Amino acid sequence: MAKEKERYGFWTKYKRFAGNEILLYLIMIIGIILGIIIFS
After folding, report:
1. Cβ contact 32:39 at 8 Å
2. CB hemisphere CA count around 14 (13 angstroms)
């Protein structure tokens, strides 16, 4: 439960600084994962 609280706090702080950047990073991560699956 301690880890969940740390994670929640991290994301709430992060969202205050950048909301759109999170979406960009998620798209990048998904793209990388899909690329690895396709090429492997």
Report:
1. no
2. 11
pTM of the model: 0.47
Structure tokens at 10: 């991290």
The token pair at 15 is 């969202």
Give the residue ranges of the chain where pLDDT is below 50: 1
- CA nearest neighbour of 23 among 34, 31, 10, 36: 31
Q: What distance in Å separates the CA atoms of residue 26 and residue 18, rounded to the nearest whole number? A: 13
**HSE value, Cβ hemisphere, 13 Å, CA-based, for 25:** 7
| Cα(14)–Cα(22) distance, integer angstroms | 8
